[in-house]
Amino acid sequence: MALATEDTPHAAVAAPSSTQTQAIAALRRAAPALGWDDWSGERAFAGTAAALDALDLAAAVLRRRVRAAVGLSRAEMGELARAAVDLEEARRALRDELLDERHTLLAGVQEALGRLRGIDSVMALLDRATMEVCRSCGFERAVLFRVADEQLFPVSAHFAGDERGADELLEVLGALPSDLDHLRLEAELVRRRMPLLVDDARHDDRVHPVIAEHFAATSYVAAPILPEGRVIGILHADRRGQGREVDAFDRDALAAFAEGFGYALQAATLAGRLRAQRDHVRGMLGSTEQLIDELLDAEIEVSRVDQEDPSRAAHHAATLLDAAPSRLEQLLTPREIDVMRLLAAGETNSGVAARLVITEGTVKSHVKHILRKLRASNRAEAVSRYLRITALDGAE
C-alpha cells in the first residue's frame, strides 16, 4: 500500500520544519511495517497540520496491523513496536509545534487589531485591513467586501508581493453583479452569519464561476464582519502560493480578525460622527457669538447717538425697529452672509477661515447650512443664487 498524495497546483512548497523532518524519518522507518513499501518517505508536507494527518493515518494503519497480527515472530513484533514508538514521538512533537503555530497566529491577530484600533479614519481602516489580515494570519491574499442593502461591493485587496494582481482582481470583482442573489456563497454567509471554509472552490456550485476563475485558489476561507449582529462586510483569504490549502484553524483565525476589525470599524465611524457634531456645534457657537457681538455693537451705537442728540437717537431706534430685513437676511444668518460674500469673491475655505478668524471646520459647517438654505447642490450654484438675491435686494 502506498500513501496516497495529490499533486499540488501551487508554485511553491514550503520547506519542512525540523519536526516535519522527524515525521518523515519516522514514516520512512515504519513503511515496511505499515506495508507502504513503495513510499520513499521523501514527501515534503504542506504544513504541520498535513504532517500530523499523515502520522495519524499511519498510526491507525499500524493499530489495525497489530490487532490482526497472528503468528508473527518476535522480530516482527519488535519492528511493529518500534514503529509505534517512533510514530507517537513524532506525533507528540508535531502537536506541540501545531499548538505553538496557532498561539503565534492568534497573538499576531491581537497585535494587528491593536494597530488598527489606533486608526480613526474609516477609509484608512478599509484600505489597511487586507494587508493586516495577511500579515497577522499568514495568508497570501485577502479581499474585503462591503455589504449594504443586500449588495456586495469590493473595497480593498492585498496580494503578498503582487500589488498589480490585487488591483486587477478588484476590477474583475467590481464588474460582477452586486446583488447577493447572484452570489450564493456570500448570501449564505450573510444569512448564517458564520465563517465558511471552501475546500474545493473550483467545483463548489455556491462559488460564482468568475470568482472561482479569477481568484484562482483551490480553497479559501471567508468570514463576516458584524460588529452589532448585522453583516456589514465580508473578508476572503487564501494561501495560494504557499504550498498548502487553508484549514479549519485558518477559518477560525480569520473569523477572530473579522470580529475585532468590526469593532475597530465601528469605533472609527463613531469617532467620525463625533468630529462632525463637534464642528457643527463650533459653527453654531461661532454664529451665536457673532450675533451677540452685532447686538452689542448696535446697543453701543444707540447709546452714543443718544448722548449726542436725543432726537437722533429716537429716530435711529425707530429705524432699527421698522427696517424690514432683506431677502438675504431672511434666509441666512449674518455670519453665513459673511461667509457667502467671501465665497462669492473667490475665497477658499482656508481663506474664509483666515479672514473671519474661525476654524476651517466651522467654515465647512456654515457652507453646508448655506447650501441647504439656498437649496443649492454645490458652491457654484449657491454663489449664483446669492448674487441674484443680492441684486434683487439692491433693486428695491
From TrEMBL:
The keyword Endoplasmic reticulum does not apply. Keywords: DNA-binding, Transcription, Transcription regulation. PROSITE patterns: HTH_LUXR_1, HTH_LUXR_2. It comes from the Bacteria. It holds the Pfam family GerE. Residues 325-390 form the HTH luxR-type domain. InterPro entries: GAF, GAF-like_dom_sf, Sig_transdc_resp-reg_C-effctor, Tscrpt_reg_LuxR_C, WH-like_DNA-bd_sf. This is LuxR C-terminal-related transcriptional regulator.
